[in-house]
């Protein structure tokens, strides 16, 4: 049994941002990360101009693939508009690596290969049976809920599934995508695509379960989507030879956390529809602001911080939810015609975290 003033569970962008902020202030803490070697998380890959500024404020230069345009693609139409400011495509492996490296460089205390089993009345129980006794708990476990903590909202009768396939770097893929972030729209779902720092890409999809169930398998669904959206099929032709479909089930898009006696960060604070490209922005903003709140007010500051942060992300999540409803429904065919540069800039700015 060990005591720690502040315990951060999860070493993704939210947890790393909190650790960097606490370490810079000289505030004792411990970050535990279940992976010994940093992988490539399912979600992420796009950093908006505002998120890039957040990364730099943490003392890190992200690099990455420069992105200046939004391209919307439906079975019958393609439209493009300039982003308000340049963004970047960056793999989660690269982002998580540089943020944790920075956390260690500024003095964060990090233990890797430590898996948390549950939050219990007598402390935080690890997979090996040991117990940590924190004064404050920062929950940064992404889309994965931790037993013993408040559950996130119901994902609905036809929940969204997050699917990801890897596309191999190739001149043909670079020529197709170039400096754009692409949004492919289809019945009951959409797919986002952006090149990463090495020229490869993650094709990340949010698809209703009913659509996958009707197709039967993930491979059959991809083939079906390729027939439905021919330009998507052109991209899928670059799937890496050994690539498989990664998935996360029942994503509660639109959910936001209620105040509690812990700091809930990133997707544990609120889940913005992925087409907004602001998941990493919420993760970093929550990690930094929660740590600042803890530094100023201790563990007792958690409920008030959560209440304020929930309000802060309310407008971006609501706007993104409205666009998602259009993208998945009958109006998706009209979206490319509505992609006026001024409107794109307005929506892009409205879905950023202030």
UniProtKB/TrEMBL annotation:
Task: Kindly give the InterPro entries that the UniProt entry links to this protein.
Answer: FAD-bd, FAD/NAD-bd_sf, Geranylgeranyl_reductase
What SUPFAM superfamilies does this protein's entry cite?
FAD/NAD(P)-binding domain (SSF51905)
> What GO terms are given for molecular function?
FAD binding; monooxygenase activity
Transmembrane domains' residue ranges = none
Highest taxon listed in the record's lineage: Bacteria
Keyword vocabulary terms for this entry:
Monooxygenase, Oxidoreductase
Q: Which residues form a coiled coil?
A: none
* Segments forming domain FAD-binding: 4-123
Q: What is this protein called?
A: Dehydrogenase (Flavoprotein)
């Amino acid at each position: 049994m060990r005591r720690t003033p502040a315990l951060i569970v999860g070493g993704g962008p939210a947890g790393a941002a909190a650790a960097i902020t606490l370490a810079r202030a000289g505030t004792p803490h411990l970050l535990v990360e279940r992976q010994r070697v940093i992988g490539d998380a399912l979600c992420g890959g796009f950093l908006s101009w505002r998120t890039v500024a957040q990364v730099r404020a943490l003392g890190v230069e992200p690099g990455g693939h420069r992105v200046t345009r939004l391209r919307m693609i439906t079975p019958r139409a393609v439209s493009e508009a300039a982003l308000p400011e340049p963004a970047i495509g960056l793999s989660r492996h690269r982002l998580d690596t540089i943020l944790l490296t920075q956390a260690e460089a500024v003095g964060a205390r990090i233990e890797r290969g430590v898996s948390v089993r549950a939050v219990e009345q007598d402390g935080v129980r690890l997979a090996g049976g040991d117990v940590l006794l924190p004064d404050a708990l920062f929950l940064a476990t992404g889309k994965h809920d931790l037993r013993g903590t408040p559950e996130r909202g119901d994902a609905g009768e036809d929940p969204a599934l997050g699917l990801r396939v890897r596309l191999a770097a190739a001149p043909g893929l670079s020529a197709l995508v170039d400096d754009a972030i692409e949004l492919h729209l289809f019945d009951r779902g959409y797919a986002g695509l952006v090149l990463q720092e090495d020229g490869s890409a993650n094709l990340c999809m949010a698809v209703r379960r009913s659509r996958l169930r009707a197709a039967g398998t993930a491979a059959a669904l991809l083939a079906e989507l390729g027939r439905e959206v021919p330009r998507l099929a052109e991209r899928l032709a670059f799937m890496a030879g050994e690539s498989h479909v990664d998935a996360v089930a029942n994503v509660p898009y639109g959910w936001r956390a209620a105040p509690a006696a812990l700091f809930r960060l990133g997707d544990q604070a609120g889940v913005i529809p992925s087409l907004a490209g602001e998941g990493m922005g919420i993760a970093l903003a929550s990690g930094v602001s929660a740590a600042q709140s803890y530094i100023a007010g201790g563990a007792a500051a958690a409920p008030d911080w959560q209440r304020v942060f929930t309000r802060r992300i309310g407008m971006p999540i609501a706007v993104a939810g409205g666009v998602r409803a259009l993208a998945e429904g009958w109006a998706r065919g009209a979206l490319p015609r509505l992609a006026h540069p001024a409107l794109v800039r307005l929506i892009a700015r409205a879905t950023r975290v202030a």
